[in-house]
Amino acid sequence: MKSIERLIIVSCMLVVIQSSGNSQATQLQNLKWIDLTYPFSGKTLYWPNNAKGFELDTMHDGPTEKGFYYSSFGFSAPEHGGTHVDAPIHFAQGKKTVDQLSLDQLTGDAVVIDVSAKAMSNRDYLITVDDLLNWEKTNGPISANTIVFFKTGYGKYYPDRKQYFGTDLKGDEAIAQLHFPGVGEELALFLTSSRKVKAVGIDTPSIDYGQSDSFKAHRIILKDDVPVFENVANLDQLPARGIYVVALPMMIEKGSGGPLRIIAGISN
Fold first, then answer.
1. Domains of the chain: total
2. DSSP labels, 154-186
3. Is 127 part of any domain?
4. What residue numbers bound the domain in which 228 lies?
5. CATH code of residue 263
6. Segment 17-64, tens digit of pLDDT
7. Is 234 strand, coil or helix?
8. Cα distance between residue 142 and residue 184, in whole Å
9. Nearest residue to 42 via CA among 69, 73, 71, 70
10. Is the pTM of this model over 0.85?
């Protein structure tokens, strides 16, 4: 009798496991995937004082001696530019490098907070705690370990350097001319201490606004080992909630950041 009972229990467990697996697979198949990544090319935008941008070198592109086609390219680029991740060590000594970020920190549920009405009318807009709280009044509270994106509307300008950065100048002299919105100091602290977010993303060149010279938002968020995603594309295609994000950067050993391929799944 005990053998029969064990057999029944094992059979039930297998059915539950199989049903769970099928359910997860079905859920993934039913998601619509949105690419939140800008392509890397000669048009990719980098901080104005970066001496070099993205470069693609042709190693071979054409027929081989044996007659078949073959192509291979080399590339080089700064860590921070285009759609990319800021690892905590970028502004926080001793914190995680990009290769030390766990997969859990780079995947999970996400929300999009739309501040474009204010940001588009003020290039130097600092996103506030009230912006987040007002969003929660309509959409519900943000749970811990959520990835939070801020949609400023500036993504529509990419890769127009002048419109996106606020200036088309390059070099050190261009830094003082940067004008684009970002996260305010109080909000940065609120995100990490009160909402305990998993990651923060934005559709501008930096989580700090263009006129910042102290990079308070970076320093506050990154010191808690919370990664930041910048130059995020297509936030206008996402709903406020019901989003699952996969954000996988190039795994650069000891890197302070790197190119990021980020996608978002939403229910069809």
1. 1
2. GGGGTT-HHHHHS----SGGGGGG----EE-HH
3. yes
4. 32-52+79-267
5. 3.50.30.50
6. 454 555 666 677 789 999 999 999 999 999 999 999 999 999 999 999
7. coil
8. 18
9. 73
10. yes
